[in-house]
Each structure stands twice: as C-alpha cells, then as structure tokens.
Specification:
- By secondary structure, this protein is an alpha/beta fold.
- Helices cover 46% and strands 12% of the residues.
- It has 37 helices and 28 strands.
- Strands 8, 9, 10, 11, 12, 13, 14, 22 and 24 form a nine-stranded mixed beta sheet that branches. Strands 2-3-4-1-5 form a five-stranded mixed beta sheet, sandwiched between helices.
- A hairpin with a 2-residue loop joins strand 27 (873-876) and strand 28 (879-882).
- Helix 15 runs antiparallel to helix 16.
- The two termini are 79 Å apart.
C-alpha cells in the first residue's frame, strides 16, 4: 500500500463529517493508513471532539475501542490493517462494518498537488496505483496548470517509476535503461497488468524495436538487452540474408521471450545498440568491452559468429572485416590483378570505417598499408629507368611510400591469417623492390662514374649552396639534419608536423627535392660532406668548423653572427631545449642555424623486435625546435645525411666491420656492386668500395636497420622546406605528395584528371619574401612550372559555362571572393573526368594547390556555382562532389556532355 494513501487531516475531517451526517451520535470511525502521519491528538467537528488513535496492531485497536466505550469518548482508529486481517468482532464495532480508505484519485491529486485529474486517467486504475505505490523519495513535481493529465502521468511513471531518462521510449534510451539493474528490477516486479500496459505503450511510442527491449526484460534477459541488440546487427545485417542467418533469427527469439523479431525492427534495435556502445566506449571502456564480449558470446550461441563481419560495432565484426580484407589482399598479392587489388582496397576501407577502428588504430592502419601495397603491385611499377634522375624521382614520389607501407606491415597482426597475408605480401613486395634495387644500383654506378651531374638527385655536399644559402637570403633558416632520415620515415613524420607550417617546392621543377648521400651511405662521410659543403670525412668538430666557415652561408649571415651548428649534446635531453640552441634559433639576426638530431640513426642499432612510429612529438626536442623557429619566422629545411633500410629477413655475409659496405679487396657478389672514384669516400680514406644493392644482405650482426649500402632507401634522402607563412622567390606551396594508389585512386584516371593549362605570361617576381597569397583572382594563381601530363579534352560544356550570363552574374555577386576562371576550369574538369567525385587529396593534386588551400577554393567556387543554394558543388566528408546534371540545368548548358 502506498504511503501516499495515508489520510491527511482534511481527509479525516471529511470522513468525520460524512459519518455525523448519517448518525449525529456516532462515536467510532475506522480509517486505513499505511503509515503514521503527524495528525493532531484530537479533531473537533460540529461540536464533537474525536480522539485520533494510531493502532498498528489488532490488540491496540481493541484497547482503543474499549477505552472509548468506557470513557464515552469519540475515537478515530487509524490502522494499517484492513478488513481481511481484522477479526470479525472488531469489524462489527465499526460503522457499516468497514475500514474507510483514502480514495486513490484523491491521493493522486495530493501527490501531484493537483485540483483535478484527467478523466482519461480514471480508466487506468493500475497506473494510479503504480504512481502511488512507487512514488520517488522526493515526491512528484506539481501538475502543470493544477490538472494531472494522462500524458503527465505516463511520463511520471516512465521516468520516476521505471527510471527511463526524461521518460523517453526510443530504443537507445531503453537500452541505456537496461543497464540500470534497479530500473530493470522495478519493471520486472510490476503486476502483470501494469507490465503489459507499459510494454504496449512503449512499443506504440518507440516502435517495435523499443518493444523488443521490454520483451527481453520481461523474459528475464534485461541485462542481455544491449548485447542482444548488438547481435541483431549481424543477424539482420543483410537485406537478403543467407539461410544460416534466417536460422539464427529463430534462435534469437527466446532471448525476447519468444517474440518473433521483424527484420526492420532488428536493424533499428541494432543501430540503437551501436550508438549506446559507442557512448560507453568513450565513457566507460571496461563496461563497453564486457558488453562487446557478451554480444560475441551470444553470436556463438545462436551460431551466427561466422557472419560477424556484418557487425559495424563489435570487435569480432572488425576482426571479421580484417580477415575478409586480408584474404583479398592475399589473393591480390598472388594474382596481381587490378580488380583483386580494388576488392582488397574496398574491404580494407570497410574495416577502416568500423566503429572499433579507432580503438584498433595501429592494426587498421597496417591493414590500409597492406591494401595500398597490393594496389601498387597491381599497377605494375617500373623496374627500369633511363637514368639516375628518373630512378630517384620514381623512388621519391612512389618508392618512399611503398617502403612506409612495407615497414608498417612488419608488425603483423594478432589474427594469424591476417599476419600470414602480410607476410606473403611482404615477400611479393620485396621481390619487386629487389628488381628496382638492382636497376637503381646500375643507374647510381653510371651517375657516379660520370660526375654526378644535374640536380636530381642533388648531392648532399651541394645542399648548402643550392638550397640553404638562397633561402637564407630571404629569411632566417633552420637546417635540421635528422641523421639517417629516409623517405619512408619522412612520409610518416611529415603528417605530424604541427599547425602553422606549409611545405614548399621549387617552381622551376615538379616534385620534391631529393638529395643523394655520399658513398658509402654512412655518417662519417655523408654528414660531414653535407655540413661542410664538400666531399669530406670528419667528426663533429670538423662538421662544426666546416659549417661555420662555408662561404655561401657566411655571405648570407649578419656580421658577428656566423652560421652556427649544434649537435646532440647541445640540444639537451629535454624536456627543455639547451639554452644556447634556443637562444640561437629564436634570434632572427642569427641568419643560419643548423641542428643535428640523431634519433633516427640511433634507433637502427636497437632491437629488431621493436617497431617504431615516427612522429614529430616522438622525436624529442623536434617540436620545441619547430616552435622556436616559427616564433622567429624561420624557414626550416629538414633533411638527412643518408637513409636506411630495415631488417626484412637479411642474411649475414662475410665483409668488413661495417654493416652494409666493404672494401674492394674481393670482386662483388651477385647482389653487390663495385663503386670507385666520383663521390666515393670510404671512412678509411679510400675511393673504392663494394656495397650490396639487395636488402637481403648484411655484413654485421642483426639489428633493427642498417645503412651504408646502395639501395635507394639508403642513398636517397628527402629535402623538405617548411615555411611559417613566408613564400620565398622561386618557391610555391606543395600539393599533396601521395601517389594515386596510396589514396585508392586509379593512376590512369588521375592522369586524365590533370588539366593542361596555357603557360602563364612571365612576370617579375618581387625580390623580397612575401606572405603566401590565396587564389581569389587570376593574378594570384601561381602556376607550377614544368611538364604537365597530356590531358584528355575538357568537357564541352565548360566554355559555354564561362560564356553564360548566369555565370557572369554569379561572379559579380561573389566579387573579390570569386576564384580565377582557370582554377574553376581545373576543378570542374578534374571532377568531371572522375565521374563527379574525388578525394580531397586527389583533387588538390589535380588542380596543383596545397590541400590546406583546397577548402578555400571549393568554398569560393561554391559561391559562384551554387545558384540559389543549389548543391552543384559540395563537400562530402573526405570527398568533393560535383552534380554535373544540376550544373547544366542551373546554367542552361543543355544536355551535351
């Protein structure tokens, strides 16, 4: 009995009044109350005084009645006992032989401080009793307007009694509620009528999926409601399910109390469970893992675990998707077919979009790297080149990304079949790379023998003259030498360089700057040659002296502030930079500062069981150096003295004490090449060496990685020029460097998307440095010089677009914010040739602007093309989309494609 049914003073007074109206001499009244309240000792009504007597037991009832009869006094007996528990002779002493009870509707009005109750509520007696029996400790809020309506009563029952948040009846809210054991217990303890009515109401409001949650709860599976919902994502994950899933759906019914689950309701419930699990994963990872594990167990119980990959939410779903992608990767590695590679890419992308991908980031990233590798292999990469320049460019724009992917999959996976697929893929990629290594070594030998002519690649000893000194004439420069920096490491490191930096490339040529180490590719030779600006051998003292006295650097330095070079001991072990380094980098009058950082090279001598992810944050002090450089307005040149290769199952051969080169005392083996003269300077002073081109060879004990050989990984090093906003003469912002296969795009399509533009008229470049401009008029569209890919003809409607009155009017409306017509032409042609959709990175490369400027170009183009807010051009996540049909309609271009 609800405490809310305890009569208050007013109710007792009304009961006495009713009694006296029927019998003015009546002296006894019995009223039922579940609890004792703070009633007065006596109440006077119509000149009669009634004593209020609380009698929790039958004995006390008898005593109070006897006392009243002997005293001749009037009494109101208030007791928690009803007529069924009191003896008949006691009952007979009460008026009409009954115990009066507070009316439920009166009590309900009192509970909600209402003056009236909605008549519709009166047909739901069970609801009134539920509200009275299960009232919250703090009571109910007052009824709005003084009237308790049916909807308010329902909300109070769902929220206050069942603890549903805000009284919501949607499936996600109910699944959240199912995690509250107290709320579930309240529901299961309801009388059958109340429980059925609540379930019907929730199903009517929240749909069949919401009803399923309460069906599971009523069947005693409330704690399993969320795991079962997640299992529905597999069972009902296909629109046209296999027979095994149809049978699993039948096995699922007992978990819902025997209720048949409609596929649509199952999918709705699964999506709600997905949202709840995602929130739990952020707020309570341990609880989320427990739910995930229980859902996986349920899939096994109903024999649906073989289809777990259908789940977008469960860990077993991610594992299943990774296994499917790995099988496709293995098939593609074996066949080399383009369609197999495309299938592998699509399956890897499917895994990458899984809800648990973020919690398994390193695993999923490795899967994406593997999918990229099979796309590279399917593209039949070249294994021969005409000269060293071609071979170097091929490695810089393609091979460095290949090696980054190869290095990533070395870590394998926790799933044996995924790890096996990676191992097979690594062997296939290694075989193709070995062909390239052999060809590269031949080009390197010829290039070295003929004087290492040209600037692609740029010998490291010419870097100061060719790159650093000219940049220092326009802005202060920090030269950051990461000893052992390979293209593969730089490709990962570049992604983590902090906000405020843009990478630059020279306008006189397409593509990245590439340097070539001295030979052999070891620190004693290459770093000294780089920092002294000449082929030489030396230690840190030699490097410091050579750097400070370099003629071209001194010429660009301020008087009294010659170039300064700092090594590991000067930088400090952190967390702070060494005082001298910080002071020099922060001083804009100190025109040229060099810093040598040894982390990359040092890690090569570590364990071959340790895999590293290279980031600017992970390289101690690098972020601090970049921060100080940006504050001083410095251009930063990041490079290495040589690269390196990682151990991928090498075999040790007889050699000298070095890891990857030996003296020329014996002829080269089949996997080696002999080099002499030219840029060969052995640490011992000789001019002839033998070095392996094969990655399978080492001469020293096994370790994580090596250098000294003549593979492109060891010889070629990146030269990255980073700007804090300054655009020096002869430089422009770099477009994204990733090749088409890296993004999952077909190379031939990307070539077709490149638009041949007429050469720009030559114009004088200002002598001083300038801040980087945008692209909002023709004069600001800085062309990148060099050969362009021969393009297919642009769509025929483009000329009609630019000639249309609507286009002209839109440009006038956009004013100075309108982009140059030539940029719009590139943008639309690129999109049209790709079927109207391109990734942001691919589109940025096609129109030849940095990716961070692409958003501005798209926004500016939208102002011109999206007439009356029509979505002709729009952003769609990582893609940019052109609706060509809508464009032709908006600008009245006709249907001619």
């Amino acid at each position: 009995m609800s405490a809310l049914l305890a009569p208050d003073v007013a109710e007792i007074e009304r009961a006495i009044d009713g009694l006296l109206q029927k019998d003015a001499e009546a002296r006894t009244l019995a009223m039922r109350s579940p609890v004792q309240r703070g009633w007065p000792e006596t109440i006077e009504r119509h000149g009669r005084r009634f004593r209020i007597a609380w009698c929790p037991s039958e004995l006390e009832v008898r005593e109070r009645l006897d006392q009243a009869e002997s005293d001749g006094a009037a009494v109101v007996v208030v007791t928690p006992l009803d007529t069924a528990t009191l003896a008949d002779d006691v009952i007979a002493r009460f008026p009409r032989a009954r115990v009066e009870q507070t009316d439920r509707w009166t009590a309900l009005r009192g509970a909600f401080r209402a003056r009236d109750v909605d008549p519709r509520l009166r047909v739901h007696r069970w609801l009134a009793d539920l509200l009275l029996d299960r009232a919250p400790i703090g009571g109910y809020p007052p009824a709005a307007g003084g009237v308790l309506d049916l909807e308010s009563a329902w909300q109070a029952a769902l929220n206050g009694v069942l603890r549903l948040p805000d009284g919501r009846a949607d499936p996600a809210a109910l699944l959240d509620w199912s995690l509250d054991a107290a709320g579930v217990d309240r529901f299961t303890r309801l009388p059958d009528e109340a429980r059925d009515a609540v379930a019907a109401r929730i199903a009517a409001e929240g749909g069949n999926a919401a009803g399923l949650v309460l069906s599971a709860t009523a069947a005693g599976r409330g704690s399993d409601a969320l795991p079962v919902a997640l299992a529905c994502g597999v069972v009902f994950g296909e629109r046209d399910p296999q027979q095994a899933l149809r049978e699993a759906a039948v096995r699922l019914e007992p978990l819902f109390g025997g209720v048949r689950v409609e596929p649509g309701a199952g999918r709705t419930l699964a999506e709600a469970g997905r949202r709840v699990l995602d929130r739990m994963a952020r707020d309570d990872a341990d609880a989320a893992r427990a739910i995930d594990a229980r859902a996986a167990a349920i899939l096994t119980e109903i024999r649906a675990d073989a289809a777990a990959a259908l789940s977008p939410a469960l860990q077993v779903g991610l594992d299943g998707r990774m296994q499917e992608a790995a099988a496709a990767i293995l098939r593609s590695a074996e066949t080399g077919r383009v369609d197999d590679a495309a299938a592998a890419w699509n399956l890897a992308r499917r895994a990458n979009t899984h809800d648990r991908a973020g919690e398994n980031r390193s695993r999923v990233d490795r899967l994406m790297m593997a999918a990229r590798l099979v796309r590279w292999l399917a593209g039949r990469p070249a294994t021969t080149w005409r000269n060293m320049s071609e071979a170097s460019v091929a490695y810089a724009v393609d091979g460095g990304f290949v090696d980054r992917a190869r290095h990533a999959i070395r870590s394998g996976d926790v799933l044996p079949d995924v790890a096996a697929a990676y191992a097979r893929l690594a062997e296939t990629a290694m075989a193709r790379r070995e062909e390239q290594n052999r060809a590269f070594a031949a080009m390197l030998g010829e290039w070295n023998a003929t004087g290492a002519q040209g600037e692609v690649p740029l010998p490291v000893e010419r870097l100061l003259n060719t790159v650093v000194a000219p940049l220092a004439s326009e802005a202060p420069v920090l030269l950051l030498v990461l000893d052992g920096l390979s293209f593969a490491v730089w490709r990962g490191l570049a992604d983590t360089v902090g906000f405020g930096w843009s990478e630059l490339v020279q306008t006189s040529r397409r593509g990245p700057l590439i340097a070539a180490s001295a030979l052999p590719s070891v620190t004693e030779v290459s770093r000294a040659s780089l920092l002294c600006g000449m082929l030489t051998i030396g230690d840190q003292a030699r490097e410091r002296t050579g750097f400070a006295s370099h003629a071209a650097l001194v010429a660009e330095s301020r008087a009294g502030r010659p170039p300064r070079l700092f090594h590991k001991a000067d930088i400090g072990n952190g967390p702070d930079l060494g005082d001298e380094v910080r002071s020099a980098v922060a001083d804009p009058q100190q025109r040229i500062v060099g810093v040598v950082h040894n982390a990359v090279d040092a890690q090569l001598s570590g364990s071959d069981q340790l895999d590293l992810t290279w980031t600017a944050e992970g390289l101690r002090q690098v972020n601090a150096l970049l921060h100080a450089a940006r504050g001083a307005g410095r251009i930063v040149v990041i490079t290495g003295d040589h690269g390196h290769m990682l151990d991928e199952g090498t075999t040790q051969f007889d050699g000298d004490s070095s890891a990857r080169w030996r003296s020329a005392g014996t002829p080269p083996r089949e996997n080696e090449i002999a080099l002499s003269g030219g840029r060969v300077r052995s640490p011992s002073g000789g001019h002839s060496i033998v070095a392996p081109w094969s990655e399978r060879v080492r001469f020293a004990a096994r370790r994580n990685g090596y250098h000294g050989g003549v593979s492109p990984q060891e010889v070629l090093v990146p030269v990255a020029v980073l700007s804090p906003g300054i655009l020096p003469a002869g430089w422009t912002e770099a477009p994204p460097p990733e090749p088409a296969w890296w993004r999952g795009e077909d190379a031939l399509q990307l070539m077709a998307a490149a638009v041949e533009t007429p050469p720009a008229a030559p114009r004088r470049r200002p002598a001083e440095s300038r801040q980087a401009d945008l692209f909002t008029d023709q004069s600001r569209a800085e062309p990148i010089q060099g050969p362009r890919v021969q393009a297919v003809p642009a769509p025929p409607w483009l000329d009609a677009l630019f000639a249309s009155e609507t286009y002209g009017a839109q440009r006038r409306l956009a004013g100075r914010g309108a982009p140059a017509d030539e940029l719009v032409r590139r943008l639309l042609t690129s999109l049209a040739l790709r079927g109207g959709r391109m990734t942001r990175a691919g589109l940025s490369q096609a129109v030849e602007i940095p990716i961070f400027r692409l958003g501005g170009l798209v926004s500016a183009a939208r102002r011109v093309l999206n007439v009356d807010q029509a979505q002709v051009l729009k952003d769609d996540g990582e893609d940019v989309v052109l609706d060509e049909a809508l464009l032709r309609a908006q600008f009245t271009l006709g249907g001619d494609r």
